[in-house]
Amino acid sequence: MTDNRDHPDKLGERLRRARGAAGLTQDQAATAIGVARTTLVAIEKGERRLKMAELVGLAELYRVSSASLLQAERADLEMRPQFRRANHPGLSDEAVSGAITLLERLATATVELDRLLGHTPNHDAPPPVRLDARRVYEQADDAALLVRSRLRVGMAPIPHLARLLESELGFHIFTRSLGAWQISGVYGYTPQSGPCVVLNAAHPPSRRQFTLGHELGHFMSTRDVVDIEGGGCEDSAVAERFANAFSASLLMPAPALRGRVAEITDQSGKFTVAAIFFMAEEFAVSREAMCRRLEGLGLVRVGTWDKVRHRASEIPANKLLFEETPFTRHGRLGLSAARAYDRELLSEGQLAELLVLDRVEVRELLDAYLGDIDEEL
């Protein structure tokens, strides 16, 4: 990736050309942004770094976008080695390629918006686990405890996992259509963007929650390694087992479930199907995921889910638990995009291209994020 703010000489040359195209002298430009002419000369020569406020001022003066000055070379990121998917026979190469391309474009958008806004990304994350096939489930439990400690959630449910991963571990998380039901999510990592995950918008929110935990498991283990489930590679199989076990342990920690089952049983004298479904909502996972986790922990009989799955449609779920909003769809990238628009660094059209959205979707995003962005508290 080429970061143009790391090359003041290139930026200075583009500023000089833009000033010339606008028909302005160095004195006029310097006066407009409140600096001495000698300072502007130094900026155009690449001898003095440009401040963000100065960039915005010069862009307005020259009638060009700040993005056009900073984005002479796009921050195109290659993430194909980090793509992870289940090996489904009916999954086309086109669907896989489209999902990967979307991930790469959104990861690129995060880097370019950070650069435009002068943000320093937070990539402070725990080191990855070196997987041992003989201890993979134990390692998954240990890693889940480490992440819970890092997120400061104790043994409590994590209904807003995506927000915590974005704020505490520097993740970028998106919910988009991936073109194929079989693709649950796409994960990628580069040093520039940090970890990025695209979740399948066609899937129920509870399933997306488990998928996010699964992809976090890959981040905590095979962070930079090719891994396609069912591809015949033993290491890949180990990585998938780790990721699935990690997600279950993270979202449904054994101590919390044991305590909850004991509490419910003590209060009512029995543990029922309704109790399982209640716990699924409490821990923000699907009913099947909760039931199978309880089976794995020996808290209910193996095969319980097969016996009760027909009851899932009879007992309605709490739809408010996973309320969909623009914030859940776009994450912190949406906030960065709104700030860039608010500062007139990018237009609606430029945002649509950068974020792979149509104009209506961009307007919905801006309306959601800009409503309170500058409200004084």
Would you kindly provide a written description of the structure presented here, covering whatever features stand out?
With 377 residues, the chain is mostly helical. It has four domains: 4-70, 434 Repressor (Amino-terminal Domain), CATH 1.10.260; 80-251, Arc Repressor Mutant, subunit A; 254-322; 326-370. It is built from 17 helices and three strands. The chain has helices at 8-22, 26-33, 37-45, 52-62, 66-70, 93-117, 136-151, 161-169, 205-219, 234-251, 254-268, 273-282, 287-296, 304-308, 326-342, 348-355, 359-370; strands at residues 172-176, 185-190, 194-200. The longest helix has 25 residues, at 93-117. Residues 1-6 and 226-234 have low confidence and may be disordered.
Count of β-strands: 3
- Tell me the fraction of residues in β-strands, as a range: under 5%
Order of helices and strands: HHHHHHHHEEEHHHHHHHHH
Outline type: elongated
Strand order of the largest sheet: 1-3-2
In CATH, the architecture of the largest domain is Orthogonal Bundle
What oligomeric state best describes the polypeptide chains here? single chain
Low-confidence stretches: 1-6, 226-234
- So what's the CATH class of the largest domain? Mainly Alpha
Q: Give the fraction of residues assigned to helices.
A: 55-70%
User: C-alpha Rg, in Å?
Assistant: 24 Å
How many individual domains? 4
Tell me, rounded to a whole number, the average pLDDT.
Answer: 84
Our count of helices gives 17
Structural class: mainly alpha
